[in-house]
Amino acid sequence: MKKEKLFSLLRYIDNGSLECITSLFLITLSLTMPAIGLGNFGIQVIALSMIPLINVRFPVAALPLALVATVWLNAWADHLLLTGFIVYLAVEYATSRGRFALALILGVEWILIAYGVALERPLEAKDSPSLITEILLILVAAGTGAGRWKILSERKQRAITQQEIIKKIRTDIAHYLHDSMARSLAIMIVQSKLTELEPDPKKIQEKLNSIAKIGQEAVADLHQLVRHLVVEESAEKATAFGAWAAVSIHDTVNSAIQLLVDAGHVVSFDSRKKNYKLDHIAETAFALAFNEAVCNAIKHSPPKANVTIRITEKAQSLQILVMNPIGDWHANGESAIPGVGIGVESLTRRIRNIKGQVCVTSLQGYWKVVISLPLKCEDS
């Protein structure tokens, strides 16, 4: 409740209401002064109109002081009363809005009116103290406004940053749900269709157990996601999203091979026996990206397809290849060719974030993904 009241007060101050109310108070106070008159009262009201006009894009806020000079030159007023204080408030407000040039114009206009037009005689040495005081008051008003401008700018920047973080969190949630939840559901669908075609009751039970296990893992992963959103701070959510999913490269690949086998595909796997080392974030990114590639292989390959997975070293990089045939239905336009959807976009984004590269090609009935990673490796 207190926070809401504070924000309401800040908004109230931001739109110039405080300056307008203070100016009205000064004008009311001037009614008690002996020099009050209709013309003198009027120039204060004209000066007050500067403050709301400061929010206009074109510098029309400079016009009221020109009108004040016109009123004075036509002898419709003979005393400035508290107009100077209203000008100080206008300079302060203009500066707080970041309109520094306008604040300078208002300050110069007021000096010309107070020590030129209204003085009605040449400026003399005895006027120097009051002139210096006037300039200092204008500078104090501008300095106060500059301090407010800095605070307001920082607050706006924090709000923009917060919105960017929220947007990134939402994007990460969408990608994570696609990478993890959609993958699990796709595998469960494939498994259920294979179960319908399986005549052996023992194998049917195995496949049903596998579907149940995938479903349980998906639910557990979703619980981790919810816990992560509840516990972590906003900035951490945006930078460490899905960090709980990190596993080694070989564990990720071996798990994916098992999924392909469970889906009824024949896997050809070739890898040199090395313990490839990546940092925690890189392992997470690779696991999610590689699982996306394998999920596409499961979804888009014909039944019992030959899927090739190969891990090779080239210079200081590690290349992981996934290649699978494309089902005949793609040629009939019933499904899009892999490589153009959110899955490949997410895959590519994750690998590039860890300074890797992704090459996706679809040629002569085969879909091929090559993931290149900078690596550290140790012989096992």
Automatic annotation (TrEMBL):
Signal peptide annotation: none
A GO cellular component entry from the record: membrane
Signal transduction histidine kinase subgroup 3 dimerisation and phosphoacceptor domain: residues covered: 170-229
The enzyme's E.C. designation: 2.7.13.3
InterPro entries associated with the record: HATPase_C_sf, Sensor_HK_TwoCompSys, Sig_transdc_His_kin_sub3_dim/P
Superkingdom to which the source organism belongs: Bacteria
Reaction(s) catalysed (UniProt annotation): ATP + protein L-histidine = ADP + protein N-phospho-L-histidine
Pfam families xrefs: HisKA_3 (PF07730)
Segments passing through the bilayer: 21-54, 60-88, 100-119, 131-149
Gene Ontology terms, MF aspect: ATP binding; phosphorelay sensor kinase activity; protein dimerization activity
Keywords: ATP-binding, Kinase, Membrane, Nucleotide-binding, Phosphoprotein, Transferase, Transmembrane, Transmembrane helix, Two-component regulatory system
Keyword Lipoprotein assigned: no
Entry keyword annotation includes Phosphoprotein: yes
Name of this protein: histidine kinase
Organism encoding this protein: Corynebacterium glutamicum (strain ATCC 13032 / DSM 20300 / JCM 1318 / BCRC 11384 / CCUG 27702 / LMG 3730 / NBRC 12168 / NCIMB 10025 / NRRL B-2784 / 534)
Lineage of producing organism: Bacteria, Bacillati, Actinomycetota, Actinomycetes, Mycobacteriales
